[in-house]
Protein backbone atom coordinates (compact mmCIF):
# COMPACT_ATOMS: atom_id res chain seq x y z
CA UNK A 1 0.00 0.00 0.00
CA UNK A 2 1.43 3.39 -1.03
CA UNK A 3 0.95 6.11 1.55
CA UNK A 4 0.78 9.88 1.13
CA UNK A 5 2.79 11.89 3.63
CA UNK A 6 1.29 15.02 5.17
CA UNK A 7 4.74 16.54 5.78
CA UNK A 8 5.83 18.06 2.48
CA UNK A 9 9.54 18.82 1.87
CA UNK A 10 10.39 22.43 2.56
CA UNK A 11 12.33 23.31 -0.58
CA UNK A 12 11.69 25.08 -3.83
CA UNK A 13 10.47 22.11 -5.80
CA UNK A 14 6.85 22.71 -6.94
CA UNK A 15 5.50 19.64 -5.14
CA UNK A 16 1.78 19.28 -4.44
CA UNK A 17 2.12 16.11 -2.36
CA UNK A 18 4.75 13.61 -1.33
CA UNK A 19 4.26 9.93 -2.14
CA UNK A 20 6.30 7.30 -0.33
CA UNK A 21 7.15 4.06 -2.12
CA UNK A 22 8.46 0.87 -0.59
CA UNK A 23 9.19 -1.41 -3.55
CA UNK A 24 10.32 -1.12 -7.20
CA UNK A 25 6.84 -2.35 -8.16
CA UNK A 26 5.31 0.67 -6.45
CA UNK A 27 7.77 2.95 -8.22
CA UNK A 28 6.69 1.47 -11.57
CA UNK A 29 3.05 1.89 -10.66
CA UNK A 30 3.50 5.56 -9.75
CA UNK A 31 5.53 6.39 -12.85
CA UNK A 32 3.21 4.62 -15.26
CA UNK A 33 0.23 6.49 -13.88
CA UNK A 34 2.12 9.79 -13.92
CA UNK A 35 3.21 9.24 -17.54
CA UNK A 36 -0.37 8.46 -18.55
CA UNK A 37 -1.60 11.70 -16.94
CA UNK A 38 1.44 13.81 -17.89
CA UNK A 39 2.09 14.54 -14.20
CA UNK A 40 5.56 15.73 -13.21
CA UNK A 41 7.54 13.58 -10.75
CA UNK A 42 10.25 15.03 -8.47
CA UNK A 43 12.57 12.77 -6.51
CA UNK A 44 12.91 13.74 -2.84
CA UNK A 45 15.66 12.42 -0.57
CA UNK A 46 17.35 13.71 2.57
CA UNK A 47 16.83 17.31 1.43
CA UNK A 48 20.37 18.73 1.44
CA UNK A 49 20.35 19.00 -2.37
CA UNK A 50 17.34 21.35 -2.33
CA UNK A 51 17.91 24.22 -4.76
CA UNK A 52 20.36 22.13 -6.80
CA UNK A 53 20.01 22.53 -10.55
CA UNK A 54 17.52 24.72 -12.42
CA UNK A 55 14.30 25.62 -10.66
CA UNK A 56 11.39 23.63 -12.14
CA UNK A 57 8.13 25.39 -12.95
CA UNK A 58 5.71 22.51 -13.53
CA UNK A 59 3.90 21.39 -10.37
CA UNK A 60 3.84 17.70 -9.67
CA UNK A 61 4.22 14.84 -7.23
CA UNK A 62 7.21 14.21 -4.98
CA UNK A 63 8.35 10.61 -4.68
CA UNK A 64 10.42 9.34 -1.74
CA UNK A 65 12.32 6.04 -1.66
CA UNK A 66 13.31 6.43 2.01
CA UNK A 67 11.41 3.23 2.91
CA UNK A 68 13.51 1.27 0.41
CA UNK A 69 16.49 1.10 2.76
CA UNK A 70 17.56 -2.53 2.98
CA UNK A 71 20.94 -4.11 2.36
CA UNK A 72 20.06 -6.88 -0.07
CA UNK A 73 23.40 -8.66 -0.13
CA UNK A 74 26.85 -8.09 1.33
CA UNK A 75 29.81 -10.36 0.68
CA UNK A 76 32.93 -8.98 2.42
CA UNK A 77 35.16 -11.60 0.82
CA UNK A 78 33.86 -10.67 -2.65
CA UNK A 79 34.14 -6.91 -1.95
CA UNK A 80 30.57 -6.23 -3.11
CA UNK A 81 27.46 -4.81 -1.47
CA UNK A 82 23.95 -4.50 -2.91
CA UNK A 83 21.51 -2.06 -1.31
CA UNK A 84 18.29 -0.24 -2.04
CA UNK A 85 18.37 3.43 -3.06
CA UNK A 86 16.88 4.79 0.16
CA UNK A 87 19.60 3.40 2.42
CA UNK A 88 21.57 6.07 4.25
CA UNK A 89 25.30 6.64 4.47
CA UNK A 90 25.15 5.89 8.21
CA UNK A 91 23.60 2.46 7.58
CA UNK A 92 26.15 1.60 4.91
CA UNK A 93 29.15 2.70 6.97
CA UNK A 94 27.94 0.80 10.05
CA UNK A 95 27.68 -2.39 8.01
CA UNK A 96 31.02 -1.94 6.25
CA UNK A 97 33.01 -0.90 9.32
CA UNK A 98 32.16 -4.19 11.04
CA UNK A 99 34.27 -5.90 8.35
CA UNK A 100 36.88 -3.11 8.27
CA UNK A 101 35.79 -2.08 4.80
CA UNK A 102 34.63 1.18 3.25
CA UNK A 103 33.44 2.86 0.06
CA UNK A 104 35.73 5.91 -0.33
CA UNK A 105 33.09 7.99 -2.12
CA UNK A 106 30.85 7.87 0.96
CA UNK A 107 33.47 8.91 3.50
CA UNK A 108 32.79 12.15 5.35
CA UNK A 109 29.19 12.59 4.23
CA UNK A 110 26.30 13.30 6.64
CA UNK A 111 24.76 10.07 7.89
CA UNK A 112 21.23 10.87 6.66
CA UNK A 113 22.21 11.24 2.98
CA UNK A 114 20.64 8.52 0.81
CA UNK A 115 22.50 6.38 -1.71
CA UNK A 116 20.17 6.96 -4.67
CA UNK A 117 20.50 10.73 -4.48
CA UNK A 118 24.29 10.54 -4.29
CA UNK A 119 24.43 8.43 -7.44
CA UNK A 120 21.97 10.64 -9.30
CA UNK A 121 23.49 14.04 -8.44
CA UNK A 122 27.17 13.82 -7.44
CA UNK A 123 29.71 16.61 -7.02
CA UNK A 124 33.55 16.72 -6.84
CA UNK A 125 35.00 15.41 -3.59
CA UNK A 126 38.30 14.52 -2.00
CA UNK A 127 39.57 11.02 -2.82
CA UNK A 128 38.17 11.20 -6.39
CA UNK A 129 41.68 11.21 -7.85
CA UNK A 130 43.08 8.17 -6.02
CA UNK A 131 40.01 6.06 -5.38
CA UNK A 132 37.72 7.26 -8.17
CA UNK A 133 34.33 8.93 -7.93
CA UNK A 134 31.45 7.08 -6.30
CA UNK A 135 30.05 6.27 -9.74
CA UNK A 136 33.19 4.26 -10.53
CA UNK A 137 32.42 1.96 -7.59
CA UNK A 138 29.02 1.04 -9.07
CA UNK A 139 29.01 -2.46 -10.53
CA UNK A 140 25.28 -2.86 -11.09
CA UNK A 141 22.18 -0.72 -11.08
CA UNK A 142 18.42 -1.18 -11.13
CA UNK A 143 16.28 1.73 -12.32
CA UNK A 144 12.72 2.49 -13.36
CA UNK A 145 12.44 4.73 -16.42
CA UNK A 146 9.94 7.53 -16.90
CA UNK A 147 7.52 5.22 -18.70
CA UNK A 148 7.67 2.67 -15.88
CA UNK A 149 10.10 0.16 -17.38
CA UNK A 150 12.32 -1.72 -14.93
CA UNK A 151 15.93 -2.03 -16.11
CA UNK A 152 18.68 -4.21 -14.60
CA UNK A 153 22.12 -2.96 -15.67
CA UNK A 154 25.66 -4.18 -15.02
CA UNK A 155 26.39 -7.05 -12.67
CA UNK A 156 27.17 -8.00 -9.11
CA UNK A 157 30.84 -8.99 -9.29
CA UNK A 158 34.00 -6.89 -9.48
CA UNK A 159 35.37 -8.56 -12.63
CA UNK A 160 32.45 -7.89 -14.93
CA UNK A 161 33.37 -6.45 -18.33
CA UNK A 162 30.56 -7.86 -20.47
CA UNK A 163 28.42 -5.55 -22.59
CA UNK A 164 28.08 -1.78 -22.70
CA UNK A 165 28.24 0.27 -19.50
CA UNK A 166 24.73 1.61 -19.93
CA UNK A 167 24.43 2.19 -16.20
CA UNK A 168 26.75 5.21 -16.61
CA UNK A 169 23.88 7.00 -18.38
CA UNK A 170 21.89 7.14 -15.17
CA UNK A 171 24.72 8.05 -12.80
CA UNK A 172 24.81 11.84 -12.59
CA UNK A 173 21.63 12.36 -14.63
CA UNK A 174 19.85 14.08 -11.70
CA UNK A 175 16.92 11.66 -11.84
CA UNK A 176 15.89 12.94 -15.27
CA UNK A 177 16.17 9.59 -17.09
CA UNK A 178 15.02 7.13 -14.44
CA UNK A 179 14.65 6.60 -10.70
CA UNK A 180 17.39 4.46 -9.15
CA UNK A 181 15.95 1.70 -6.97
CA UNK A 182 18.97 -0.53 -6.22
CA UNK A 183 22.75 -0.48 -6.65
CA UNK A 184 25.63 -2.92 -6.31
CA UNK A 185 28.87 -1.28 -5.19
CA UNK A 186 32.48 -2.36 -4.92
CA UNK A 187 33.88 -2.11 -1.39
CA UNK A 188 37.52 -1.78 -0.34
CA UNK A 189 39.62 -2.64 2.71
CA UNK A 190 39.67 0.35 5.04
CA UNK A 191 43.03 2.15 5.40
CA UNK A 192 44.66 1.86 8.81
CA UNK A 193 45.27 5.61 8.99
CA UNK A 194 43.65 8.69 7.42
CA UNK A 195 45.39 11.97 8.31
CA UNK A 196 45.88 15.51 7.02
CA UNK A 197 48.89 17.78 6.74
CA UNK A 198 48.31 21.43 5.85
CA UNK A 199 50.80 23.98 4.53
CA UNK A 200 50.53 27.61 3.46
CA UNK A 201 52.49 29.49 0.83
CA UNK A 202 52.47 32.78 -1.00
CA UNK A 203 50.30 32.76 -4.10
CA UNK A 204 53.29 33.42 -6.33
CA UNK A 205 54.89 30.19 -5.09
CA UNK A 206 51.69 28.25 -5.74
CA UNK A 207 51.47 29.57 -9.30
CA UNK A 208 55.11 29.01 -10.22
CA UNK A 209 56.69 26.31 -8.06
CA UNK A 210 54.21 23.96 -6.36
CA UNK A 211 53.35 21.15 -8.75
CA UNK A 212 56.86 20.20 -9.90
CA UNK A 213 58.52 19.44 -6.53
CA UNK A 214 55.36 17.63 -5.48
CA UNK A 215 55.41 15.50 -8.62
CA UNK A 216 58.99 14.42 -7.90
CA UNK A 217 58.11 13.19 -4.38
CA UNK A 218 57.11 9.49 -4.01
CA UNK A 219 53.87 9.51 -1.99
CA UNK A 220 52.00 6.21 -2.48
CA UNK A 221 49.53 7.02 0.29
CA UNK A 222 48.53 10.47 -1.06
CA UNK A 223 44.79 10.47 -1.76
CA UNK A 224 44.37 14.13 -2.74
CA UNK A 225 45.60 17.68 -2.28
CA UNK A 226 42.96 20.28 -1.41
CA UNK A 227 43.81 23.89 -2.29
CA UNK A 228 42.01 26.68 -0.39
CA UNK A 229 42.20 30.36 0.52
CA UNK A 230 42.09 32.33 3.77
CA UNK A 231 38.29 32.23 4.07
CA UNK A 232 38.45 28.48 4.77
CA UNK A 233 40.71 28.80 7.82
CA UNK A 234 39.55 28.18 11.35
CA UNK A 235 40.13 30.83 14.03
CA UNK A 236 43.12 28.90 15.42
CA UNK A 237 44.88 29.09 12.05
CA UNK A 238 44.33 32.75 11.22
CA UNK A 239 47.93 33.52 12.23
CA UNK A 240 48.97 31.96 8.92
CA UNK A 241 47.35 34.81 7.01
CA UNK A 242 49.22 37.32 9.16
CA UNK A 243 52.54 35.58 8.53
CA UNK A 244 52.15 35.23 4.76
CA UNK A 245 50.12 38.32 3.92
CA UNK A 246 46.85 38.64 2.04
CA UNK A 247 47.90 36.89 -1.19
CA UNK A 248 48.50 33.35 -0.03
CA UNK A 249 47.16 29.83 -0.69
CA UNK A 250 46.80 26.80 1.58
CA UNK A 251 47.20 23.13 0.65
CA UNK A 252 45.92 20.18 2.69
CA UNK A 253 47.42 16.76 1.90
CA UNK A 254 45.11 13.80 2.54
CA UNK A 255 47.24 10.76 3.45
CA UNK A 256 45.71 7.27 3.74
CA UNK A 257 47.43 3.94 4.25
CA UNK A 258 49.25 2.05 6.99
CA UNK A 259 50.87 3.87 9.90
CA UNK A 260 54.43 3.61 8.58
CA UNK A 261 53.80 4.91 5.06
CA UNK A 262 51.69 7.82 6.35
CA UNK A 263 54.41 8.82 8.82
CA UNK A 264 57.04 8.60 6.08
CA UNK A 265 54.89 10.74 3.79
CA UNK A 266 54.40 13.38 6.48
CA UNK A 267 58.15 13.49 7.13
CA UNK A 268 58.85 13.86 3.39
CA UNK A 269 56.27 16.65 3.01
CA UNK A 270 57.54 18.48 6.10
CA UNK A 271 61.08 18.33 4.71
CA UNK A 272 59.87 19.55 1.31
CA UNK A 273 57.98 22.41 2.98
CA UNK A 274 61.19 23.55 4.68
CA UNK A 275 63.07 23.47 1.38
CA UNK A 276 60.36 25.37 -0.53
CA UNK A 277 59.55 27.95 2.14
CA UNK A 278 56.04 26.63 2.91
CA UNK A 279 54.58 27.12 6.40
CA UNK A 280 53.36 23.93 8.08
CA UNK A 281 50.27 24.19 10.28
CA UNK A 282 50.97 22.04 13.30
CA UNK A 283 47.34 21.44 14.29
CA UNK A 284 44.83 22.38 11.63
CA UNK A 285 41.10 21.74 11.37
CA UNK A 286 41.26 22.21 7.58
CA UNK A 287 40.09 18.79 6.34
CA UNK A 288 37.83 17.41 3.64
CA UNK A 289 34.86 17.36 6.04
CA UNK A 290 35.54 20.90 7.25
CA UNK A 291 35.50 22.18 3.67
CA UNK A 292 32.67 20.03 2.32
CA UNK A 293 30.36 20.94 5.20
CA UNK A 294 29.77 24.18 3.28
CA UNK A 295 28.26 22.12 0.45
CA UNK A 296 26.17 19.62 2.40
CA UNK A 297 24.91 22.04 5.07
CA UNK A 298 22.82 24.05 2.61
CA UNK A 299 22.22 27.78 2.62
CA UNK A 300 24.83 29.38 0.36
CA UNK A 301 24.93 29.04 -3.41
CA UNK A 302 27.54 26.60 -4.77
CA UNK A 303 29.38 26.67 -8.09
CA UNK A 304 31.43 23.82 -9.59
CA UNK A 305 34.36 24.65 -11.87
CA UNK A 306 36.12 21.94 -13.86
CA UNK A 307 39.53 22.28 -15.47
CA UNK A 308 42.98 20.70 -15.53
CA UNK A 309 45.38 20.49 -12.56
CA UNK A 310 47.77 22.93 -14.26
CA UNK A 311 44.89 25.42 -14.61
CA UNK A 312 44.26 25.64 -10.86
CA UNK A 313 46.25 28.88 -10.38
CA UNK A 314 44.44 30.50 -13.33
CA UNK A 315 41.01 29.37 -12.13
CA UNK A 316 41.51 30.57 -8.56
CA UNK A 317 42.93 33.91 -9.77
CA UNK A 318 39.79 34.57 -11.83
CA UNK A 319 37.59 33.56 -8.90
CA UNK A 320 39.27 36.12 -6.68
CA UNK A 321 38.84 38.78 -9.37
CA UNK A 322 35.09 38.25 -9.71
CA UNK A 323 34.04 37.02 -6.25
CA UNK A 324 36.11 38.79 -3.63
CA UNK A 325 34.14 37.50 -0.62
CA UNK A 326 33.37 33.93 -1.64
CA UNK A 327 34.96 30.76 -0.22
CA UNK A 328 36.67 28.43 -2.65
CA UNK A 329 38.70 25.25 -2.51
CA UNK A 330 39.87 22.83 -5.15
CA UNK A 331 41.00 19.25 -5.61
CA UNK A 332 44.39 19.60 -7.25
CA UNK A 333 44.76 16.33 -9.15
CA UNK A 334 41.23 16.29 -10.60
CA UNK A 335 41.29 20.01 -11.44
CA UNK A 336 37.89 20.59 -9.81
CA UNK A 337 37.07 23.73 -7.79
CA UNK A 338 34.04 24.42 -5.58
CA UNK A 339 33.02 28.04 -4.99
CA UNK A 340 30.66 28.83 -2.09
CA UNK A 341 28.91 32.20 -2.02
CA UNK A 342 29.53 33.04 1.63
CA UNK A 343 29.17 36.81 1.02
CA UNK A 344 25.94 36.65 -1.07
CA UNK A 345 27.78 37.91 -4.17
CA UNK A 346 26.25 35.51 -6.68
CA UNK A 347 24.43 37.39 -9.42
CA UNK A 348 23.71 36.35 -12.98
CA UNK A 349 26.13 39.02 -14.24
CA UNK A 350 29.01 37.83 -12.06
CA UNK A 351 28.45 34.17 -12.86
CA UNK A 352 28.41 34.92 -16.57
CA UNK A 353 31.54 37.05 -16.23
CA UNK A 354 33.39 34.19 -14.53
CA UNK A 355 32.08 31.69 -17.07
CA UNK A 356 33.30 33.85 -19.97
CA UNK A 357 36.79 34.16 -18.49
CA UNK A 358 37.14 30.44 -17.78
CA UNK A 359 35.45 28.92 -20.81
CA UNK A 360 37.84 30.85 -23.06
CA UNK A 361 40.60 28.75 -21.47
CA UNK A 362 38.74 25.43 -21.70
CA UNK A 363 37.32 25.23 -18.15
CA UNK A 364 33.60 24.82 -17.44
CA UNK A 365 31.31 26.46 -14.88
CA UNK A 366 28.12 24.90 -13.46
CA UNK A 367 25.88 26.19 -10.67
CA UNK A 368 25.10 23.29 -8.33
CA UNK A 369 22.94 25.24 -5.89
CA UNK A 370 21.31 28.54 -6.84
CA UNK A 371 21.05 31.48 -4.41
CA UNK A 372 18.08 31.50 -2.05
CA UNK A 373 15.09 33.10 -3.78
CA UNK A 374 16.78 33.15 -7.19
CA UNK A 375 14.98 31.91 -10.30
CA UNK A 376 17.81 31.54 -12.79
CA UNK A 377 17.26 30.12 -16.29
CA UNK A 378 18.87 26.83 -17.26
CA UNK A 379 21.36 28.64 -19.51
CA UNK A 380 22.83 30.40 -16.45
CA UNK A 381 22.85 27.30 -14.24
CA UNK A 382 24.29 24.87 -16.79
CA UNK A 383 25.88 27.16 -19.39
CA UNK A 384 25.75 26.61 -23.14
CA UNK A 385 24.82 23.06 -24.24
CA UNK A 386 27.76 20.84 -25.14
CA UNK A 387 27.84 19.72 -28.81
CA UNK A 388 27.17 16.16 -27.63
CA UNK A 389 24.10 17.31 -25.71
CA UNK A 390 21.93 16.19 -28.63
CA UNK A 391 22.76 12.56 -27.81
CA UNK A 392 21.81 13.02 -24.15
CA UNK A 393 18.53 14.57 -25.26
CA UNK A 394 17.79 11.50 -27.38
CA UNK A 395 18.26 9.28 -24.34
CA UNK A 396 15.89 11.52 -22.42
CA UNK A 397 13.29 11.04 -25.14
CA UNK A 398 13.80 7.27 -25.03
CA UNK A 399 13.80 6.78 -21.26
CA UNK A 400 11.24 9.43 -20.38
CA UNK A 401 9.12 10.11 -23.50
CA UNK A 402 6.47 12.02 -21.53
CA UNK A 403 9.21 14.16 -19.88
CA UNK A 404 7.77 13.74 -16.39
CA UNK A 405 10.95 13.06 -14.41
CA UNK A 406 12.33 16.20 -12.74
CA UNK A 407 11.27 18.37 -15.72
CA UNK A 408 13.29 21.58 -16.06
CA UNK A 409 15.76 20.72 -13.31
CA UNK A 410 18.54 19.35 -15.47
CA UNK A 411 19.84 20.22 -18.95
CA UNK A 412 17.12 18.45 -20.90
CA UNK A 413 14.38 20.22 -22.81
Account of the 3D structure:
Helix 10 packs antiparallel against helix 11 (348-359). The strands form four sheets. The chain has an eight-stranded antiparallel sheet, sandwiched between helices. A five-stranded antiparallel sheet has the order 5-6-10-8-9. The chain contains 13 helices and 19 strands. The protein starts with a strand and ends in a 14-residue tail after the last helix. Residues 1-10 have low confidence and may be disordered. It folds into four domains: 2-64; 71-189, 2-Layer Sandwich (Uridine Diphospho-n-acetylenolpyruvylglucosamine Reductase, domain 3); 193-286, Alpha-Beta Plaits, CATH 3.30.70; 289-389, 2-Layer Sandwich (Alpha-Beta Plaits). With 413 residues, it is of the alpha+beta class.
Amino acid sequence: MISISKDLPQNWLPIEALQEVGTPQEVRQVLREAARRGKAIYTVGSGFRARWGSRPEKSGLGISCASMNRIIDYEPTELTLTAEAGITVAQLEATLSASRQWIPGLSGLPGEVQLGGLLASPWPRSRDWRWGRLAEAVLGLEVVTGEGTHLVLGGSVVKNAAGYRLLRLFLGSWGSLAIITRATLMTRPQPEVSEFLTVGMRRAIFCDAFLQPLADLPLPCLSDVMIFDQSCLTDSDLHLAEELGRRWVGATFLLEGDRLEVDLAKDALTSLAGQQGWKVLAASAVSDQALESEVVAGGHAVCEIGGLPAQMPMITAHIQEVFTGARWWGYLFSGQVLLVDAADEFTVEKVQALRTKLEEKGARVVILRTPDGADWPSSVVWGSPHPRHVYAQRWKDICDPAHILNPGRYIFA
